[in-house]
Amino acid sequence: MKKYRLLTVMAAVIALMIPASVNAMDGASSACFGDLLTHLVNAYETDSSYDQYIQAELDEIKSLSDEDYALAEAVADNWREVFLDPDYRLYLYEGEDVAAEMADAGIPDDHPHAIVVLGYELRDGEMQEELKERCEAAAALAKAFPETILVCSGGATGENNTAGNTEAGLMKAYLTENCGIDDARIFTDEQAMTTAENAMNTFSILEENNLHTMTLVTSTYHMRWAQAVYNCAALVYHMQHGYDIESVANYCFETSPSKEMYRMGDRIAAFQIAGILGLPDHVIHTLPSFHREDKELSTTEYGISFVQPDYGTISADKDSALYGERVTVSLDLDRKHQAVSVKYNDREAFRNCDGTFSFLMPDADALITVELEDCDPADTATDFGVARKMPVPFGTASASSAYFIYPCAERLSALPWDLLQLVPEEGYNWEYDYVADKPAWKLTLMDYANIYSFIHDHTLDPEEVHKVLSDADKMVHRKAFTDEEIDLLLGDDEEAVMEYFASDSTIVIGNKGYSAGWMYNHTIEEYEAEGITPEMVQAVLPYYYNPLYVQEAADAFSRKLFRFTSVLAPTKCEQWKAGDANLDDAVNVKDVVLLQKYLDEISRMDFEQWASAEMTGDSIVDEADMEILLRKILVGKEDEPTVLLDVMEYCQYPDYPTGCESVSLFMLLKYYGLKVTVDEIYDLLPMGQQPYDDEKGVRHGANPEREFVGDPRSDYSYGVFHEPIAKVAEHFKPGVKAQEGATIDDIKAILDTGNPVLAWYVSQPMRDIMYRWRWLDERNETVYWPGGEHAVVICGYDDDALIYRDPNAGTTVVIDYETFEKSFNELNGRIVYYTGE
Question: Distance between CA atoms of 513 and 333, rounded to whole angstroms?
């Protein structure tokens, strides 16, 4: 018996021992099964052996259930053969006579046999070259083995497929019209949308035609993944239908995708195998790819110990852990102290969005320590402290650096390239020294000011400047300057330039502008040194509920501004929660009790509690606030949101640094109660080429209208637009809508029906969108990438603003209509939503 036949025969024997219901396994077994699949994936993705981990999981399952063990062992053997066996051979289509070689590979010549051709996504309703090549390979086999039938499997895929063409239907037409195959030999499955569905639908056709053997035809990178899924599906099909099907050979159209494509394939195979087996509540939380070239895998668990702080406690979610296992650390501190950092063996742990810390277990015992700093609590309404060090204001991309470290840094790099070219070459090399001869402008942190400085520093010709700035295609933000704006920039009135171009949130003093970002990052003493007065700050406070700030940062900013102005500047989200003094997300009698204790000087409140209890806007918490709180409990409050849907909050960091679209889809799907993970979404998301420069310096990359540009798990990728996200959403819940050209009124109308909206705008909505990056896609069309592209889930609104869940920080954000609409409209009003529950 040939090696590749062993799995199916063994699985058929094992199947006789297993109950017919594949999802009836013991709950403990299913949990071990999830770990088993994770270790199998790791075994393929690393250069080290995971045999001891895989065997440990099998032993654990065996101790729980002999029947579940038989199933697990079959899946593990399947995986070892397809993914881990270095001798597993892929047979490549080379356009030559294939009969002798493929007969040796296992295709029988003495009884009927099926050639199963797997589909590939359509583009605009038409076959791509890769699918045509798969058909050519299948045709070569069909001609070499005339007794075989062909099964084409694949549904109606691809964007702009208005005709509803299916992969299988087009494949059959291509095989008959272009390859000369008799259509009577060709059977089609036009429903399958995944490899697992390919398998189960294919098997029904094989059973109807009394066929027990098959050969898979697909691309090289897809073959292992497909074989793993088909072998597992064959086992389950026998269990459910009592019918044996054997995958005896493979035949590949050769492609050369990246190593990451192959790694992604085994992850998808793991998810689909889990689905085929019907594992209850199965979730593969993480599939890490630890590189352990210099380390031997060990089953030794290393201990976790602590140096307890003087003003609280520190704990972990486990007492010991294996090397590379994630450990989560929690703090419980008194109100007078806050954590600066948490370290394990002098290495800094990652600060999570929920206030916990985490790290990957080192190859040694871990000693956890915490560094604290004073943080004075509120004593009275006019005396409470401010943190000595302002927290990172944005969602973080790593443990050590902010996602946007300097949100208002000078942007000479944003100057129009054609404007730079007006400066004589001698003495300047803009391409390699883009910030040479930096303008003298130091405090007006605006691109307009930089352009003004550049024009005047180099005495540029007004006519040439006008020609450049009036051409939208030459602008990084893809907008032409008006004649009025160009005249201002060419003039010599610096104060007029600053006054005209400054945003509403900027404090302007002469020819200097102080943005919200500058105010956040500088001290009260620096305010005073620059001539900024409390009255100036009060005037811009309405614009300081900056949607970029995470809640911790917004609170710290509010504290600092209060100390300077004596006026509280809460976010609107806090105002809606006004009265929730104990911060339990409910306004009730418990808040009355806490507030009364505070007024009676029996209890103290920290800043967040105090800010929520301050309901009159006079920066004093007194009996007037108590009266409003009682009225709110009894009769409600008029300024609460018109609509506020219960969408979860979820942070994309650290695991998905550029995956805001998929994390937003995760939040949207969870609103409907679906059992889905972010990784499952990623594994279905089409991913395309990260932009790169060819030998001629021309930049090429994928098109976000059709696929994700790069990889969402990478810090350096780009993103994707609404159509591909909607396609993934349809896989989990039918009935999704993808719309372009939507308006704020459209969004509000959808929210009124009880359905949240996934929408695209930018992460810095108060600025013009910058199009610094552009490249050619595979169709030779130019892609202009909008800097700061971001996706969020809008879950509510009132008369003044929208409310959304922001994956960038894992928080709730309130944003006024004008600010949101500015970039939302420029990105063509892209939304994804459902119309029913």
Answer: 39
Which three-class secondary structure state does DSSP give residue 834? Answer: strand
- Provide φ and ψ at 427, rounded to 5°: 90, -10
Torsion of CA 444, 448, 449, 452, to 10 degrees: 180
Nearest CA to 579 out of 534, 627, 531, 532 is that of 627
Contacts 24+ apart (CB under 8 A), 553-557: 553/390, 553/391, 553/392, 553/393, 553/394, 553/520, 555/607, 555/608, 555/611, 556/386, 556/387, 556/390, 556/391, 557/390, 557/393, 557/519, 557/520
Tell me if 722 sits within 8 A of 760, measured CB to CB: yes
Chain Cα centroid distance, residue 339: 28
Distance CA 588, CA 387 (A): 30
Backbone angles phi, psi at 253, to 5 degrees: -80, 125
Predicted confidence at residue 607, as pLDDT, reads 64
Question: Residue 790 above 90 pLDDT?
Answer: yes
Cβ-contact 793, 812 below 8 angstroms: no
- Mean confidence (pLDDT) of the chain: 76
Residue 39 near residue 282, CB atoms below 8 Å: no
Rounded to whole angstroms, the Cα distance separating 323 from 292 reads 10
Q: Distance (Å, rounded) from C-alpha 530 to C-alpha 533?
A: 9
**C-alpha distance from residue 517 to each of 254, 506, 557, 688 (Å):** 52, 9, 10, 35
Which among 286, 293, 217, 300 is positioned nearest to 252, based on CA atoms? 217
CA quadruple 687, 254, 91, 98: dihedral sign: positive
pLDDT value of position 393: 57
Q: How far apart are CA 684 and CA 676, in angstroms?
A: 12
Cα-based angle 693, 698, 704 (whole degrees, multiple of 5):
75
Q: Give residue 324's pLDDT band: very low, low, confident or very high (50, 70, 90).
A: low
pLDDT at 399: 28
Q: Would you say residue 122 has pLDDT above 60?
A: yes
Q: Which two tokens stand for residue 820?
A: 């949101």
Predicted pLDDT at 25: 57
Q: Are strands 312-316 and 246-253 parallel, antiparallel or unpaired?
A: unpaired
Measured CA to CA, the distance from residue 772 to residue 170 in angstroms comes to: 40
Q: Which amino acid is at 253?
A: F
CA dihedral of residues 819, 825, 831, 835 (deg, nearest 10): 90
Nearest to 664 by CA among 726, 754, 735: 726
Per-residue confidence at 407, pLDDT binned at 50, 70, 90? very low
- Tell me the pLDDT band of 3, cut-offs 50, 70 and 90: very low
CA distance 373 to 346: 18
Per-residue CA distances from 351 to 318, 398, 662, 809 (Å) = 18, 9, 22, 12
Which residues does 41 contact at the CB level (< 8 Å), separation at least 6? Answer: 266, 267, 270, 284, 287
Non-local (6+) Cβ contacts of 577 within 8 A are 585, 587, 612
Secondary structure of residue 555 in the 3-state scheme: helix
What are the CA-CA distances from residue 6 to residues 51, 109, 247, 509 (Å)?
A: 20, 19, 10, 80
* CA atoms of 214 and 237, how far apart (whole Å): 14
- How many residues are there in the chain? 837
Residue 654: cis peptide before it, omega within 30 degrees of 0 = yes
Place of tokens 């943190």: 387
Strands 801-806 and 789-797, sheet pairing: antiparallel
Give exposure, 309-326, as e/b (b: 16+ Cβ within 10 Å).
beebebebeeebbebebe
The pTM of the full predicted model, rounded to 2 decimals, is 0.44
CA distances in angstroms from 191 to 188, 200, 202, 584, 754, listed in the order given: 9, 11, 10, 48, 31
CB 623 within 8 Å of CB 630: no
R_g of the chain, CA atoms, integer Å: 31
What share of the chain has pLDDT > 70, as a percent? Answer: 75
Nearby residues of 737 by Cβ (< 8 Å), 6 or more positions away: 726, 832, 833, 834, 835
Strand 366-374, strand 337-344: pairing: antiparallel
